[in-house]
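Quick one - inputs below.
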Amino acid sequence: MNIAPARGSRMVLAAIPFFLIVVIYIMGSAERRAANPEDKLLPPISEMAGTTKRLATEPDRRSGDYVLWTDTAASLQRLLLGLGISTLIGLGFGLAVGLLPIAGASFGTIVAVISMIPPMAVLPILFIVFGLGELSKVMLIIIGVAPCLIRDMSIEVQNLPREQMIKAQTLGASTWQVAIRVVLPQIMPRLIKSVRLMLGPAFLFLISAEAIAADVGLGYRIFLVRRYLSMDVILPYVAWITLLAFILDLLLGLFARKTFPWAYVEEPR
Amino acid sequence: MSALSFRNVWVEYGSQIVLERINIEIASGSFLSVVGPSGAGKSTFLRLILGQERPSQGAVLLDGKPFPAEPGPDRGIVFQRYSVFPHLSVLGNVLVSYEFEQRPFTARLFGAARRRAIEKSEALIEGVGLAEHRDKYPSALSGGMQQRLAIAQALARRPRVLLLDEPFGALDPGTRAQMHGLIKPLWRDLKMTIVMVTHDIREAFALATRLIALDRPRRDPQAPERYGAKITYDLDLTRDGAVPVLGFLKTGMG
Ligand SMILES: Nc1ncnc2c1ncn2[C@@H]1O[C@H](COP(=O)(O)OP(=O)(O)O)[C@@H](O)[C@H]1O
Ligand SMILES: [Mg+2]
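Output:
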């Protein structure tokens, strides 16, 4: 518990599990190929690299698209739209519900109830109401993510010491001024933390919606090639989605540290 | 002018009577200390002046007139903790009150108006001895420095009444003595009325011109909530010579 690795050895230690997974995969793949040259379950890494290169650099024979990039662009657009709108809703409503007793009394319970609805259960409704286009996919992410953010933000607002609101008022602040100068900046670090935690669910909703009804997107592609057992496409796509999620998480973390240094003073990096 | 009057004030929470029959005239420019056991209602007494709380009966008047029942810039406050904004620097904590004052919608100042406000803020920060910590965040300040900042901030809007709720209660004795050396001249120069709640009776004697004790004179062991606290001592500390009370002597009157 008390032995902390230095920076260099920390990176080595972090790399070991990844390395082990790769080694085990290569051994397993080679073994299955030796037993059955037609095996599709664990394609060799060389084959996956070839497929990935083709998807990324050669236009598709039918559509003429660079499949990997069009899929990525479509999925990221849906994800970022959904997450962005959810963030704005979460911040606005969370602030109002947390700060204004009237808003809390009128919306607090309904938000708590809505956040209990399993988003996947309303997906058919979304498809019926908003059609099979982009809107229903973005809506699914919003319905899945926004209520949690609203609750989280309103709790964060209520956790701010009451003394601060009083103090601000004795400095002449109106409710609006308290909201934008006292409350908003103080809940931003938590907002970014919550959005980071919601990245996983957001991807889940995105890929589910794409699997069911889409004609482009990362989730669409995985479920399309599943019929042909194309593990050489699925595995790299999964790795790519993971990498995208990881990068988004990292960027949000860096942004928070840069923008709100006061919130990280006691937290040595 | 900033005289405060309590006219037959009662505060009840449900069946619990916290304060009963409080009658006091606090002269403009006085420094009133409030002492009493925990839970006696000292903070409630301050909240009445602050406008955060309404009396169940009676009235609290500022210069003979009722005042808005919400906190406003004519009454400043320093709490024992959480008084400063952790997300603003020392300068930002003081500056923000001018930004509240001058920009109702954006609450942000730019250009020449900002420079003027910074000048005023810096004078206040200098006055409490924090000039070299201007750009630090509160988390980088010691407890005493945070309370200095809270005082500078509370003075920014020139309140007529300054309320202090155990402001130095969390500080070590040395720092507390420094804070006493800070607050007394400020009070004298700015001619405010100060009401300070404290646990430390020496502090009360060292600073105040008048001292009241809040306590429950009667107790019903079966129903402790039946009787509220009243003013049980009311001492004028401006008269010449030491006034012996509770075994302590009045000291440090300058
Ligand atoms: N909002 C409230 N609701 C119910 N009871 C309260 C409330 N605020 C204070 N009290 C009660 O009033 C009494 C006095 O509280 P307070 O003024 O904080 O005492 P002090 O500051 O002297 O320690 C306490 O018994 C407390 O439980
Ligand atoms: Mg108290």
